[in-house]
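Researcher:
Attend to token order:
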Amino acid sequence: MHSAENSKYAKTHEWAHMEGDTATVGISDHAQQEIGDIVFIDLPKVGQQVTAGQNCCVIESVKSASEIYAPVSGEVVEVNEALKTEPGLVNQEPHGKGWLFKIKSTAPAEYESLMDLSAYKESIK
């Protein structure tokens, strides 16, 4: 099970948790608080190839639209279908039921270069 403590973080506030060669991706609790009440999520398509640092998803809140970037490169193998009808799950459980999508990684070293929780917390001070 992924949690804030065992995930890795990108500077752009996405988290990733790797199991085997597949990374589950979401946004940090800090990011969901900054974005505000989420009303719509434009998820990537299953089968889409993504590159680390590339915009691959958009989250719309009552305040604004925010681009979400892939923390690792690879192929999107699953999206969180529940978010299509309940986008607010990201606000309620950003590290649980509010995950966004899963990427089958083609570059495992990218995951290792992401920040751990303590480094991420330092980066958002």
User: Anything to note?
Assistant: The two ends are 27 Å apart (CA to CA). The chain has a mean pLDDT of 95. The helical segments are 29-35, 89-92, 108-112, 117-123.
